[in-house]
TrEMBL record:
The keyword Nucleotide-binding applies. The keyword Nucleotide-binding applies. Keywords: GTP-binding, Nucleotide-binding. GO terms for molecular function: GTP binding; GTPase activity. This is OBG-type G domain-containing protein. It comes from Trifolium subterraneum. Residues 63-288 form the OBG-type G domain. Residues 315-336 have a biased composition (Basic and acidic residues). Residues 299-342 are annotated as: Disordered. It comes from the Eukaryota. InterPro entries: Beta-grasp_dom_sf, DRG, G_OBG, GTP-bd, GTP-binding_2, GTP1-OBG_CS, P-loop_NTPase, Small_GTP-bd.
């Protein structure tokens, strides 16, 4: 049985199992089993060099933003509008088949925007080019999830689930759980507050599932079993995501109003060039970039060429800054065919 079939089987078992105190431990174990299988799914197949099918684009500029969405929601139209790089747009699905980079010049910085093929439900399990697309999303600093304002609102949840299945966590911060594997000494389990979602026994069972018998664990918040599994897996990526509802020109004002009130959302129309400045401002804010203008002694500061830093938060939620070198635009040979204008 393949990994995907195994995942499906466990998901079916979870769906059949009633949620109550008695089944809580079993369900936790099943969740850990799925998490382990999903991690296996992410490993490159044995014997391959790990990727390499035309989706990798060299990083450029002070940050990278990916456009993720169902087919024909207007990702390419948006890339063309924001960057001036032409990316083919058409009314049929899967117009874009590769990764097309463009550059946004904003606030004296250069942001690399990546147009990508549309993804569909099942992408994380390899439907379409879903896995490759999501891998590129994972390599970016933030995601713009482009949604069609006139289509089902369920699309937002479906795509979020697909991204979560490969270890992306959108608009969440890392769980406040200290976890350290040890060589000996058994499991030490502590918390700084009463826990309402997990208990010691459940955590032991999950550790058992991972064959971890020596570790130090400290819950610093009332975290869930999913949070705990995320911490054990250790390969999660916490990213900001802005939900971009495009095509508001074809829906009524009530819908526009409602969508604009969804969390982390911006409503736009590429056709009418509506609200694009708001989108850029929001994207910029979420990237957390900071510009530092250096002033050589005895001279005026250079206001055209800042040093750009990005704020990062570590496990303890403390902020620090990472500097960005504005790397030259080197695109791998494979990507030279793709249009890239500055
Ligand atoms: N009404 C309306 N149509 C739009 C808007 N933006 C894009 N479109 C149309 O939507 C269709 C799909 O646009 P694309 O840019 O190709 O969409 P995509 O998401 O890149 O599609 P794939 O590459 O196939 O995944 C085209 O016919 C566009 O003209 C908009 O704001 N309003
Ligand atoms: K299209
Ligand atoms: Mg496209």
């Amino acid at each position: 049985m393949g990994i995907i079939e195994k995942i499906k089987e466990i998901e079916a078992e979870m769906a059949r199992t009633q949620k109550n105190k008695a089944t809580e431990y079993h369900l936790g174990q099943l969740k850990a089993k799925i998490a382990k299988l999903r991690t296996q799914l992410l490993e490159p197949p044995k014997g391959s060099s790990g990727g390499g099918d035309g989706f990798e684009v060299t990083k450029f500029g002070h940050g990278r933003v990916s456009l993720i969405g169902f087919p024909s929601v207007g990702k390419s139209t948006l890339l063309t509008l924001l960057t001036g790089t032409h990316s083919e747009a058409a009314s049929y699905e899967f117009t874009t088949l590769t990764c097309i980079p463009g550059i946004i010049h904003y606030n004296d910085t250069k942001i690399q925007l990546l147009d990508l093929p549309g993804i569909i439900e099942g992408a994380s399990e390899g439907k379409g080019r879903g896995r490759q697309v999501i891998a590129v999303a994972k390599s970016s600093d933030i995601v713009l999830m482009v949604l069609d304002a006139s289509k089902s609102e369920g699309h937002r949840q479906i795509l979020t689930k697909e991204l979560e299945a490969v270890g992306l966590r959108l608009n969440k911060r890392p769980p406040q759980i200290y976890f350290k594997k040890k060589k000996t000494g058994g499991i030490s389990f502590n918390s700084t507050m009463p826990l309402t979602h997990v208990d010691e026994k459940l955590c032991y069972q999950i550790l058992h599932e991972y064959k971890i018998h020596n570790a130090e664990i400290l819950f610093r918040e009332d975290a869930t079993v999913d949070d705990f599994i995320d911490v054990i897996e250790g390969n999660r990526k916490y990213m900001k995501c802005v939900y971009v509802y495009n095509k508001i020109d074809v829906v009524g004002i009530d819908d526009v109003d409602r969508l604009s009130r969804q969390p982390n959302s911006v409503v736009i129309s590429c056709n009418l060039k509506l609200n694009l400045d708001r989108l850029l401002a929001r994207m910029w804010d979420e990237m957390g970039l900071v510009r530092v203008y250096t002033k050589p002694q005895g001279q005026q500061p250079d206001f055209g060429d800042p040093v750009v830093l990005s704020a990062e938060t570590d496990e303890g939620g403390r902020g620090r800054f990472k500097s960005h070198s504005d790397a030259p635009a080197r695109i791998s040979d494979r990507q030279k065919k793709a249009p890239l204008k500055q």
